[in-house]
Amino acid sequence: MPLILHLTDMHLHADAAGRLKGIPTLASFRAVKSLAWRRHPAPDALILGGDLAQDELGPTYRLLADDITGWCDAVRVTPGNHCNLPVLERTLLPALDMPPMRASELRLENWLVIPLNSHDPDASPGGRLGGDELARLERLLAETDADHALIALHHHPAPIGSPWMDAMMLEDADDFWRAIEASGKAHAVLFGHVHQKLDTMRGDVRLLATPSTCVQFKPQTETFALDEASPGYRWLRLAPDGGIETGVERVAGFLPPDPDDTSFY
After folding, report:
1. What integer pLDDT is reported at residue 188 of this predicted model?
2. Does residue 125 have a cis bond before it (omega within 30 degrees)?
3. Which residues pair with 112 in a beta bridge?
4. Half-sphere exposure of residue 174: CA atoms within 13 angstroms, side-chain side
5. The pTM is what?
6. Domains and CATH numbers, the chain
7. CB neighbours (10 Å) of residue 130?
8. Count of CB atoms within 10 A of residue 222's CB?
9. DSSP code of 12?
10. Distance between CA atoms of residues 46 and 100, nearest Å
11. How far is the C-alpha of 39 from the C-alpha of 34, rounded, in Å?
12. How would residue 260 be classed by pLDDT, with cut points 50, 70 and 90?
């Protein structure tokens, strides 16, 4: 069964000492990456979720590329709200030999994996696919001869029960779900952005959120709150019958020094 790894919300800085909520983001990312690499040295695909670079600088994207070069031949990215898209396209994509995002779909046996770009500066910190990306999604689902599809994007396309975070979800989620439901091939949607583990259903579609490789957000909260949980990543195995085996693995430590810090990030 094809194996996919999802690492997301790194919030890296060009300065290796950079921190988010007191957590050194490069050190926490490297700890998560090392755990994932040790457990899964040869994945079929590696998906880098959005918010890769907190400072949105070219040297930061190159730092990330240097850290994962040689791990996996098929690397894809789902840009988030913390993103300088032109810089990412000039640095990270060529460094990791990634195709343009408009051609980033990936066939893994009888599965089609579709990474989407929900980055839109006018919607930030929420996300928006827009007409072109929605049309691409509809076309790929309609034309594929794959039996099953996995959709990956940064912003969550359905509420997660935290009003402050749900105000920053995918703005055109209704259009997204119309495309998904018209096809019937998409069995799961994979996303980051929410900095927490989630595994639930929306009708027949499984919703899978992955923890950040740095700071975590407390689930089911009215206002922003930090969670005293460690960073992690998600693995997924895609079964021939459309089922998905998946789990989240975490490293030890890297907890926020002030869990009561509610200043926005």
Report:
1. 98
2. yes
3. 107, 149
4. 0
5. 0.97
6. 3-239 (3.60.21.10)
7. 18
8. 9
9. B
10. 16
11. 9
12. confident
pLDDT, tens only, 168-220: 999 999 999 999 999 999 999 999 999 999 999 999 999 999 999 999 999 99
Residues 6+ apart with CB under 8 A from 50: 8, 9, 77, 78, 79, 80, 81, 82, 83, 118, 119, 154, 155, 192, 193
CB 80 within 8 A of CB 50: yes
Q: Among the residues of the chain, which ranges form H helices?
A: 25-39, 58-68, 85-95, 130-143, 163-166, 173-183
Q: What is the DSSP letter of 103?
A: G
Q: Which H, E and C letters describe 63-101, residue by residue?
A: HHHHHHCCCCCCEEECCCCCCCHHHHHHHHHHHCCCCCH
> Within a 10 A sphere around the Cβ of 119, how many other Cβ atoms?
27
The encoded tokens of residue 102 equal 């408009």
Contact, 134 vs 179, CB < 8 A?
yes
